[in-house]
Write a structure and sequence with these properties.
heterodimer, A: six-stranded mixed beta sheet, 7 helices, 10 strands, B: alpha+beta, eleven-stranded mixed beta sheet, six-stranded mixed β-barrel, globular
C-alpha cells in the first residue's frame, strides 16, 4: 500500500538568470513499512525533497500525497496538525528545545496536540532508547548520541506513519551512528512505520530497502535491495 | 509538564538573565510613566493651589449683582459655594493713610485671597482682620485682640475687635489704603453696586460650558482666569484646546516611549529565539500555538514587572523629594509642595504597562509564528538568517581599523536590532529635549523670573501728598552709610536705590523698527520727520541704575556690557527692546520691537515737541542690550527702556528740563529696595528698617516680606520640582539606554565567544563594542535631536496660544542629552564586557547548543 506518493515534484528558488532548480520533476511512491535511503552529492536536492515530503516548504510544482491526502491542499494550520500526527522529523543537528528535559522534549508533539502521553508507551520508548537514567536531564547535559536518541524518541512519540530523517548520523561517531540506524530499523519492524533517511554514508544506504539517488535535482535511480524486504 | 504552554515558564526560569533584563525594561517604563504622571499631576495641583492662594479660589463672580441674582444663585443646583463681599467706606488715618473695612460672608472669606499672618478670620460682624502694617497706625495702636473704632461697611462708626492680622500687601502700602475684613451680617447684606458675588460650581460640572449660561443671568460676570486655565476650564476654548494638546502630546510621548522600551526589551528576547519557534513548527506547532507561547511569556513578565514598576515609580519619587528636603532644602518649606496621590495615574500606568507588553509581544509573536520551519531546520547554530547589506559608502567606523570594520559590519548585519537599539536612544534623547523645553517654558510662564521677586521691603519717600497737598521735598533720602549698613545685615542680598524716571519719545527710523510689530499688533506710533528721514515716535522709559542694579543687569545681558565705568563714559546706555505686545489674535507675544545693536545711536526727543517747536534730539549710544527688565515688569507692552548711569541720566534730565523741571526731578536716591536671600529671616531686617523709617521723617517703609517669601518659595520650589522632573527623565532615559545596550551585548555572548575563539583579543572586542556604542550614540543623537527639536517647535506653537515668545533652538538640552547618551552608552558596555572576560569561553560556546 502506498503511504507516500510523489508526482512531478519541483522546487526552484530565485527568478530569471539567478533561478536555481533544486528539484525537478521527481516522482516515486513509497509503501508502508519501507526503509528508504536518499543519497546524492551536496546540493543534489536531498534536503529539499525531505522538507517537501514533510510539508515544511511549498513546492513550485507537483504533488505530495500522504496516506492518500494531498499535503499541499491543506491550509497552513491543517498542515501543521497533519505534520505532528503523521510525520516525525529527525535532524542532523538534533534541534531539541534547550529548556525542556529529555522526557518533555519527547512528549512535546503530544502536548502540542493537547493530549496526555500514554505513560506505558512513553516509558517503553525511553527505555528502548536507553535514556531511562537521563529522562530528567536537559539537552545541554547529554552527549551527541544521546541527544539524537532523544530526537528519535520525539519523532516516534506520536507513532507517526512516516519518519523523515535528515542525516541523523552526520554528527555522530560510527558506534553511535550504528545505534541510531538500528533504532530506526527497529521502529520499522516494531511499529510498521515508514522511514525516509538522507545519508552520505553508503554503508547505511546499503541497509535500506530502497535507495533513491538524486543528482542535480533529478531522480537518477531508484534501486530496491533484493531480499531485504521487511 | 502538563501542557506545551508550560514551556513559556520554563524558558523564563532557565534564561533568568534575559528574563530579568526584560523585566527591568518593563519596570523602568512603568516607573517612568507613573512617576511622570504623578509629577505632572502634582505640578498641576500645586499650581492650582498656588493660584487659589494668590488670586482666590472662586471660579467666577459678578461685580454688579442684583438681589434677584443672589437669590437665583443661592438656589442654583450647580452652585457649590456662594460668597458675598462688599467694599466699605474709607476711614482716614494720620499721614494720608486710610483703611477700608470690607465685609465678606463666611464663604467669601474662604474664596478670596486673604492671607492670615496671625490670629484668625472674623466670625462675627464686630470682628476684624487687618493688615500688619496698618496695625501701628490705627487709632490707639491696638494689637491682636485690641479694638479700634472705624467706619463700617454701612458708613457708620463702629468698634471692632481685631482677631486676625493679615500679610502686608505691596499695593495697599504704596497707595496708602489698607483693606480690613469683617464678617458680613447675614441680617443685612445689601446687594448693590459695591457688592461682589463669588462662586464655585459643584465638582463634575463642566465649568467652561457653564460660563456662558451664568453670564446670561447677569452681564457683570468676571472669571478667575488663571485658576480656570490651570483647571483646563477656561472660558477661552482655544486656551483649553492648546493646554489639552500640550499635555496630550507630553502624555502621548511618555506612553509612546513606554511602549517602545517594553517593545525593545521583548523584541530582542523573542528575536533571539526565532529559530526555536521555527523548530516547534517542524514538530507540528501551529502559528497560533507559537503566538500563544510568546503571549504567555508576556503575561508572566508583565505580572511581575508592572506592579514592581508602579512601586518603584512612586517610592522613587517620594525618595527623591525626601532627599531634597534632607539636603538642606527644608528652608524652602517643601511641605507646602505636596506629592499628590491619584488613583487614575496608577490605574493608567498599570493599563499602559500591560497594553505595552502585549503590544510589544504581539508583533514579535507574529514574526515568530511566521518563521519558516525550513530555515529553522537548516540553521545548525545560526540564529536568524540575517540580511547583510553591502555598504555603498564605507562607514566612518572604517577609520578605527579592523575593529571599526567589524563594528560597522555588526551594525549593518541586523537592521532590526540596529533600529531597536537606536530607537531607544532616540526616544531617550527626544524625551529629554522635549521635556527640558517644556519645563523651561512652563517656568517662564508660571513664575516671575527677574530680580523683583527677591525684593521684600521698600524704604521710600512718602509718595502721597500731605494734608496741604505738598509732596515731600526732592533730594537724597537715605545717605550712603545707611544704605551700606542695611546691605550688611544678615539675610540681605542686595540694596538697590530708587530713583526718578522719565518717559521720553525715541525717534526710531523705519529700518530699525520690527515690521511684525506693525503687521501683527495694533501698536502704532506717531510719525515724525527727522533730518529728512521718517521716524516713529516710540515711548521710551529712561531709568537710572546704580552699581547694585547694574550687577544684576549683567545676568540679563544679551550683548555689549553692563560695566558701570564703561556706561558712565560718553552717552552710553543699556537698551531693552524686547517687549510683549498684545497681538491682533488677542494673545501676548514676546518679540523684539526694534533692531538696535551694540554701538548704534538712539535719538531721544527731549523737548515737549508741541506744534511749531523745533525738535531737540539727544543722541545716546547703545553700549549693551538686555533680554528683559531685571526689575519691575519683565516686559513692556510697546515701549523701549533705556537705562543709564548717573552722569548720563543727569545730562538727559538737563536736556529734558522743560518736561522734567529740576525742582521736582533729580538723579538722587529717593529710597531703597531691599532684596533678601532665600530662606532669610525678615524679622531683624524689618526691625532695623522700621528704626530707619522712624528716624527719617517723610520716609515710609513698604513691607511685603511675607508675600515675597511665599511667592519666592513657590518659584524656587517650582524650579526644584521641574529640575527634579528633568532628573527623573534623565535617569530613566539613561537606564533605558543602559538596558538596551547591555541586553544587546549580553545576547551576543556566544558570538563574542566565537570571535575570541578565532583569535580576537578582549581588547579588540572592547574596541569593537566601543565603536558600535559610539555609532549608536551618534545616530541616536542625530535623530533624537531632530525629532526633539521638531516636537519642541510643535509644543512652542501650542504654547504660543497661551503666551507668545520666540522659538529658540534647544541647544543646551540637545548637547546635554546627546553627550549623556554617548557617555552612558560607553560606560554601560564596560560591565558586560568585563563579565565576558572573566567567563569561560567554552561554557559560552556551549550555552546555546
Amino acid at each position: 500500500m502506498n503511504v507516500i506518493s510523489v508526482d512531478g515534484l519541483s522546487k526552484s528558488y530565485g527568478k530569471g538568470t539567478t533561478q536555481v532548480n533544486a528539484l525537478q520533476d521527481v516522482s516515486f511512491q513509497v509503501n508502508q513499512g519501507e526503509f528508504v535511503a536518499v543519497v546524492g552529492a551536496s546540493g543534489s536536492g536531498k534536503s529539499t525533497l525531505l522538507h517537501l515530503l514533510g510539508g515544511l516548504d511549498k513546492p513550485s510544482g507537483g504533488y505530495v500525497h500522504i496516506d492518500g491526502e494531498n499535503l499541499y491542499a491543506f491550509k497552513e494550520k491543517e498542515r501543521a496538525v497533519f505534520r505532528r500526527r503523521k510525520i516525525g522529523f529527525i535532524f542532523q543537528s538534533y534541534n531539541l528545545i534547550p529548556v525542556l528535559n529529555v522526557e518533555e522534549n519527547i512528549q512535546l508533539p503530544l502536548l502540542l496536540d493537547h493530549r496526555q502521553p500514554d505513560k506505558a508507551y512513553l516509558n517503553d520508548l525511553i527505555r528502548t532508547l536507553g535514556l531511562h537514567e537521563r529522562r530528567k536531564h536537559l539537552p545541554s547535559e547529554l552527549s551527541g548520541g544521546q541527544q539524537q536518541r532523544v530526537a528519535i524518541g520525539r519523532a516516534l512519540a506520536y507513532r507517526p506513519a512516516i519518519i523523515l530523517a535528515d542525516e541523523p548520523t552526520g554528527n555522530l561517531d560510527s558506534a553511535n551512528g550504528r545505534e541510531v540506524i538500528e533504532l530506526l530499523k527497529l521502529s520499522v519492524r516494531q511499529y510498521h512505520q515508514t522511514v525516509i533517511i538522507i545519508t552520505h554514508d553508503m554503508s547505511i544506504a546499503a541497509e535500506a530497502d530502497r535507495v533513491l539517488h538524486l543528482q542535480d535535482g533529478r531522480l537518477q535511480s531508484d534501486t530496491r535491495s533484493l531480499g531485504r524486504g521487511v | 509538564m502538563r501542557s506545551y504552554g508550560a514551556m513559556a515558564g520554563k524558558y523564563l526560569k532557565q534564561q533568568r538573565k534575559r528574563t530579568i533584563l526584560t523585566i527591568v525594561g518593563i519596570v523602568l517604563s512603568v516607573a517612568l510613566i507613573s512617576a511622570l504622571g504623578t509629577m505632572g499631576q502634582t505640578l498641576k495641583d500645586n499650581l492650582i493651589q498656588n493660584t487659589k492662594y494668590e488670586r482666590g479660589a472662586f471660579y467666577f463672580g459678578y461685580d454688579k449683582p442684583t438681589p434677584e441674582l443672589y437669590e437665583t444663585l443661592r438656589k442654583h443646583v450647580l452652585v457649590d459655594q456662594l460668597g458675598y463681599y462688599r467694599t466699605g467706606e474709607r476711614s482716614p488715618l494720620e499721614n494720608s493713610i486710610a483703611v477700608t473695612v470690607e465685609e465678606a460672608d463666611g464663604e467669601a472669606l474662604k474664596l478670596l485671597p486673604i492671607h492670615l499672618y496671625q490670629g484668625r478670620l472674623p466670625t462675627a460682624p464686630n470682628e476684624l482682620a487687618v493688615e500688619r502694617w496698618i496695625l501701628d497706625r490705627l487709632p490707639g495702636t491696638p494689637g491682636l485682640d485690641g479694638s479700634a473704632r472705624l467706619v463700617g461697611p454701612d458708613g457708620e462708626q463702629r468698634d471692632y475687635r481685631i482677631v486676625g492680622i493679615l500679610n502686608n500687601e505691596k499695593r495697599s502700602q504704596v497707595n496708602g489704603t489698607s483693606r480690613a475684613f469683617t464678617l458680613a451680617d447675614p441680617a443685612s447684606m445689601p446687594i448693590d453696586d459695591k457688592a461682589i458675588l463669588l462662586l464655585t460650581l459643584k465638582s463634575g460640572v463642566d465649568i467652561s460650558d457653564q460660563i456662558d449660561v451664568f453670564s446670561k443671568l447677569n452681564s457683570s460676570l468676571f472669571t478667575n482666569n488663571t485658576l480656570l486655565a490651570y483647571m483646563g476650564e477656561s472660558g477661552d476654548d482655544n486656551l483649553n484646546t492648546a493646554l489639552a494638546v500640550i499635555f496630550g502630546t507630553l502624555i502621548g510621548l511618555v506612553v509612546l516611549s513606554t511602549v517602545a522600551v517594553i517593545y525593545n526589551a521583548f523584541h530582542i528576547a523573542v528575536l533571539e529565539r526565532v529559530r526555536q519557534f521555527g523548530l516547534l513548527r517542524t514538530l507540528g506547532a501551529t502559528p497560533a500555538q507559537i503566538r500563544n507561547l510568546v503571549l504567555r511569556e508576556a503575561t508572566v513578565l508583565s505580572t511581575i514587572g508592572v506592579p514592581v514598576g508602579l512601586l518603584i515609580g512612586w517610592f522613587g519619587l517620594w525618595f527623591a523629594l525626601w532627599l531634597m528636603t534632607q539636603a538642606g532644602l527644608k528652608i524652602l518649606m517643601m511641605e507646602t509642595f505636596e506629592l499628590t496621590f491619584h488613583w487614575w495615574i496608577f490605574a493608567g500606568s498599570f493599563a499602559i504597562g500591560y497594553i505595552a507588553v502585549y503590544l510589544a509581544a504581539w508583533l514579535p509573536a507574529r514574526k515568530a509564528s511566521s518563521v519558516s520551519p525550513v530555515d529553522a531546520a537548516k540553521g545548525a547554530g545560526g540564529i536568524v538568517r540575517e540580511s547583510y547589506r553591502r555598504a555603498r559608502i564605507p562607514s566612518l567606523l572604517y577609520l578605527a581599523g579592523v575593529e571599526g570594520r567589524m563594528a560597522s559590519n555588526n551594525i549593518r548585519r541586523n537592521r532590526t536590532k540596529f533600529r531597536i537599539t537606536t530607537f531607544s536612544i532616540v526616544i531617550s534623547i527626544m524625551l529629554f529635549i522635549v521635556f527640558h523645553y517644556f519645563t523651561q517654558q512652563t517656568l517662564t510662564m508660571t513664575t516671575t523670573t527677574n530680580e523683583d521677586d527677591r525684593i521684600a521691603f521698600q524704604l521710600t519717600r512718602t509718595a502721597i501728598p500731605d494734608e496741604n497737598g505738598m509732596r515731600p521735598a526732592a533730594g537724597e533720602l537715605i545717605p550712603d552709610e545707611m544704605a551700606s549698613e542695611i546691605g550688611a545685615l544678615p539675610g540681605v542680598e542686595a540694596v538697590y536705590g530708587i530713583y526718578d524716571r522719565m518717559v521720553l519719545p525715541s525717534l526710531v527710523p523705519e529700518t530699525k523698527l520690527n515690521g511684525d510689530l506693525l503687521t501683527d499688533t495694533a501698536v502704532r506710533y506717531e510719525k515724525t520727520n527727522l533730518g529728512g528721514e521718517g521716524t516713529h515716535r516710540v515711548p521710551t522709559r529712561v531709568l537710572l541704575y546704580d552699581e547694585a542694579r547694574l550687577k544684576q543687569a549683567a545676568k540679563y545681558l544679551h550683548s555689549g556690557t553692563t560695566d558701570p565705568e564703561m556706561l558712565a563714559e560718553g552717552d552710553n546706555v543699556l537698551l531693552i527692546q524686547t517687549v510683549r505686545p498684545i497681538q491682533n489674535s488677542g494673545k501676548k507675544r514676546i518679540m523684539d520691537m526694534t533692531r538696535y545693536r551694540v554701538g548704534d545711536r538712539i535719538s531721544v526727543w527731549t523737548n515737549s515737541g508741541s506744534a511749531g517747536e523745533e525738535p531737540e534730539v539727544h543722541e545716546l549710544t547703545v553700549a549693551g542690550i538686555l533680554t528683559e527688565s531685571p526689575f519691575d515688569a519683565s516686559y513692556q507692552d510697546s515701549s523701549l527702556t533705556i537705562i543709564g548711569t548717573q552722569p548720563t541720566f543727569v545730562k538727559l534730565l538737563e536736556a529734558a528740563a522743560g518736561q522734567y523741571p529740576p525742582s521736582e526731578f533729580d538723579a538722587e536716591r529717593h529710597g531703597l529696595e531691599i532684596a533678601l536671600r532665600d530662606g532669610a529671616d525678615p524679622e531683624p531686617i524689618r526691625a532695623k528698617l522700621l528704626d530707619v523709617a522712624r528716624a527719617h521723617s517723610g520716609s515710609n517703609l513698604i513691607d511685603y516680606a511675607e508675600n515675597q517669601k511665599s511667592a519666592r518659595n513657590f518659584n524656587v520650589q517650582m524650579r526644584i520640582f521641574v529640575y527634579g522632573f528633568l532628573v527623573v527623565i534623565g535617569v530613566i532615559g539613561s537606564l533605558n539606554i543602559v538596558n538596551t545596550v547591555q541586553t544587546n551585548l549580553l545576547l551576543r555572548r556566544r558570538e563574542i565567544g566565537l570571535l575570541q575563539a578565532v583569535g580576537m583579543t578582549m581588547g579588540q572586542i572592547r574596541k569593537m563594542a566601543t565603536a558600535e556604542g559610539i555609532w549608536f550614540g551618534v545616530i541616536g543623537s542625530f535623530w533624537g535631536i531632530l525629532l526633539g527639536v521638531l516636537m519642541s517647535s510643535f509644543l512652542h506653537k501650542q504654547l504660543n496660544t497661551v503666551q507668545g515668545f520666540p522659538f529658540e533652538f534647544p541647544w543646551g538640552a540637545s548637547l546635554i542629552a546627546s553627550g549623556a547618551a554617548l557617555i552612558v552608552g560607553l560606560i554601560s558596555v564596560q560591565g558586560p564586557l568585563r563579565k565576558m572576560e572573566k567567563a569561560n569561553l567554552l561554557e559560552e560556546l556551549r550555552e546555546e547548543a
